[in-house]
Amino acid sequence: MSFSVNEPSPINQRDLRNAFGTFLTGVTVVTVLDEDGNPRGITANSFTSVSLDPPLLLVCIGSRSFSFPAFCSAPAFAVNLLHEGQADISALFASRSPDKFQSTAVEAKHTGAPVLSDCLTWFDCTVHDRVMAGDHLVLIGRVQAFATSPAVPLGFCRGRYAAVRDPAAAAGPAPYDPTGDGERLAMIDGRASPRPGAFAENG
Fold this sequence. Notes:
Layout: H1 13-20, E1 25-26, E2 28-33, E3 39-44, E4 47-52, E5 55-62, H2 68-73, E6 76-81, H3 87-93, E7 106-108, E8 114-116, E9 121-133, E10 136-148, E11 154-157, E12 160-165, H4 168-171, E13 187-192
Antiparallel strand pairs: 1-11, 2-3, 2-6, 4-5, 5-10, 6-9, 7-8, 9-10, 11-12, 12-13
């Protein structure tokens, strides 16, 4: 007896990239020190929280990134979430410019990884685990220190920056939700990014 197996249809990578891009994200700059102690950084929007106990987060680093070797070996890194006024910082760290840190102020916090002096929120992490998944490194960090601000985040969706307007300021406090599941939805205004599509993570 023989069985026929239906082979899956080939996935069009550009279409898949565009589909992934419909998920609204923030924008981060992920920073690290290389083996010579030089700061490296890339723009990435593949970021998520993982756990509160222990405090874990993850970012995905493209294997074609110039800084990829540093992220594969460094014991610590920082994730810097950008605010609405930092589209230029996002574009800078998405490029291969050798002068990224000449015009961007950074400081050491807990681990020594470079933290942007001006950003929405930063997380200073030691490496908890590394997992290679396809063409990306899933970098899982244990948060050692963090700080945040009331600034408005820089959003990204469908290859464009998105201006996120928090409706809480105009609408007042949210109605009581006895289920504890209610959340406010941010209002999105599309704004063209310097380069269409997802970030190439070239840093």
